[in-house]
Structures are given as C-alpha cells and as structure tokens.
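Q: Got a minute? One more chain.
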Amino acid sequence: YARRGYVAVAIDYRLSPVLIFNATEEVAYKAVLKGIHDVKAAIRYFRMMDELYPEVYKIDSNRIFTGGVSAGAIAAVNAGYLDEYEEVPSFLIDDYDELGGMEGLSGNNGYDSSFHGIVNFCGAVGDQEWIVEGDLPIVSMHGDQDDVVPYDDNLVTLFGLNIQIDGSYIIHQRMLELDNYSDLHTYVGQGHVPFSANMEFEAEFTSLFLYDVVCTEDNFLIGDL
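A: Always. Here it is, folded:
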C-alpha cells in the first residue's frame, strides 16, 4: 500500500492471557485501550518516518487508514471513534493516566496519531454514541451469525464476559443516520471471519470503498499513483 502513496495500518491481535483467565469488563476495556495505543503508536511511527526518512516508505501521511480482523478490527474501530475523555468508561478513569490516556506510552511522541478511515472486518465499537456527525469513514464486513464479535448490539459472552458492544451493523446504521460515509457487506447466515479463501472479494469490496476517499481529485495530483 505504501508504494501507492498512502498508508494502511493493519492490526492483528491475539487475546491477552490476562483477559482469558480474568475475564471482566474492566480488563476487556483495558485490553482494547492498549490496542488503541498500539494503533496510534504505529501511525506516529509512519509520520515520523515520512518526515525524517521519506525515501524509505514514500508515503503520503495525509492518507492513513487503519484496519484489522476481529480483535484487530476492534482496536482500529475504537481508535477511530473513542476520541473524547467523556467517552471513557467510568471504571477506567482512576487508571486513565497510568494506562497512557488516549495516546498511550508506546513512543514516537510529538507526531500526530490521527487517521482518515477504517477497514473493519468483524469488529465492533464500545458504544455507537461515540460516532458523531462527520466522523471517520468506515467499510465493514461481518457475518450476521457471528457468536464471537456481535454483528449487531448483542452481548460478548466469550470467556464468560457479559459486555454489550455495537457491531458492524449498528456502526453502519449509526453512520448512515448521521449522513457519514460508510458501507457494509453482510455474510448472511455466516459466523466469525467468514471470508473467502483468497480474500479477493474482500480486497475488491474494501478497495472500491476506499477509492472514493483515497483517490479523489482533492487528494492527489495526476501522475502520483
């Protein structure tokens, strides 16, 4: 992706052993917050490299997009929409500064961690109300029978958790209500990560969505791609 002039930060997460053996809502949200921090640190890294060593990646740091699958998608989605102190769950406030606040403690300080869109494969947001008018565009793909990360607003019950979050369908509906840019492909009757073997369909679907926000006339000069 960098060779085409923009950055796509792909996040792949495994479940923390702490979450598996101590599955509480607070621990789960702390795990998500750490994922958000890693997303933002990666973005700061690319911006730092673009400023100091532009010949390495040859990117346009004004076009950075994040995406992931399952837990990685949750990190990417929440990094985009959990962006106000008032939105932080009350049970995290006491540890907020120690955890690193919104930005985290993962390095590359002084560089902007914002980005321009989200690719969401079977992810969710903590609360649809975090999405506001004019928020980041998002393209989502999700099975409507997902029993790991809810497609709608069902509970996460993995490892005994009992947390209500808003999946891709709810995210998409909220975005449309606010007249924000969003698209959703639903795998009808399918469960978690029901993607094609070679991911060709998924790549095509997300590429068509991203084209309108990456390759508009306002974003590039003829000949730079």
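A: The beta strands are 7-11, 64-69, 118-121, 124-125, 138-143, 155-156, 163-164, 166-167, 182-187.
Q: Perfect, thanks.
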